[in-house]
Amino acid sequence: MKQIAWPLMALVAAVSANAEIRIFVTASSDGYGLTNPANAFQPTFSTVYEDGENVNGYDYADADGNPTGNFAVGSFPPVDAPLGTEADPILIQAGHWAYVWFQFQGEPKGLKLNGMHVGVSVAGSTDLAPVSTAWYVCNNMNSPIQNKRWDGTATPPEYPEWHGNMQTFVAVTAYGLQNFGSDVPWNLYEGSSRIALLGAVQAPADGTVYQLRTSEICYFVPPGDYVLSLGYFKFVPEPATWFVLALGVLIVRRR
User: Fold this and answer.
1) pLDDT band at 238; cut points 50, 70, 90
2) Mean pLDDT throughout 54-78?
3) Residue 43 — very low, low, confident or very high, per pLDDT cuts 50/70/90?
4) Is the pLDDT of residue 163 over 80?
5) CA 72, CA 60: separation in Å to the nearest integer?
6) Distances (CA, A) of 59 to 34, 62, 178, 239
7) How far is 124 from 58, CA to CA, in rounded Å?
8) Which of 51, 96, 111, 193 could form a disulfide with 28 if both were Cys (CB 3.0 to 4.6 A apart)?
9) Torsion angle (degrees, nearest 10) of CA 157, 160, 161, 166
10) Cis status, amide bond into 227, omega within 30 of 0
11) What's the pLDDT at 146?
12) DSSP symbol at 231
């Protein structure tokens, strides 16, 4: 994303009870997320060069407009999906991962989000956590859709630009995220809930509580004030792991 200058956009800060931006997670075991879970940590199948040229931009649809199965959401979480709290976070069982979602609530119709930063920290800390992430580019520039969610380079096979923490998202010429009531399947967006799938997060199953963070949310046309709600979650050890951890604590205490 380094090659794209951050546009001069107004930064909107809190606070109103009528409009809310929610960024939260669900567990991959909950049944929400990609139809092809094998792609959960694959940001895109495309290549985007520094000059903006797109190659193999078929993340959702092929050259004839038929869905490829690479990036599509099988089921979205409900409109009132819980955020979790530090004391009661969303639980991610061992062997699973967290899907990260973005939701408009009460925002003006047609509002276009064209820039933000999203990251993950340990709850109670401002330091970014050593977690694994993947953020979906949704590049369909070579299909009849001829659009993508985010601008920026995308370099296969590892796509280092799209595994960030904190991750920068920019949509200057790209579609971004837009608050409409109709579904946009290629953009992993459900209109009825105003929810979009952003990406996925994985971390060791050691019981650490994490919080989603954002430092900027920007729009082409800023709305009124809003509430920003960010979710909490933790990766839960398997029962045997809990026993080993507890035993270790007892041994340390006896010493």
Assistant:
1) confident
2) 97
3) very high
4) yes
5) 7
6) 12, 8, 19, 38
7) 40
8) 96
9) 150
10) no
11) 98
12) -
Place of tokens 């009870």: 17
- Predicted confidence at residue 92, as pLDDT, reads 98
The one-letter code for the residue type at 43 is P
Handedness of CA 195, 210, 139, 42 (dihedral sign): negative
- As a whole number of angstroms, the distance between CA 128 and CA 165 comes to 7
The structure tokens 């809310």 sit at 20
Q: Indicate if the pLDDT at residue 164 is higher than 90.
A: yes
Q: How many residues does the chain have?
A: 255
Closest CA relative to residue 121, chosen from 205, 212, 198, 203: 212
Which residues pair with residue 167 across a beta bridge? 118
Query: pTM for this one?
Result: 0.88
Question: What is the token pair recorded at 166?
Answer: 């904190």
- pLDDT at 215 (0 to 100): 83
Closest CA to 59 of 176, 142, 182: 142
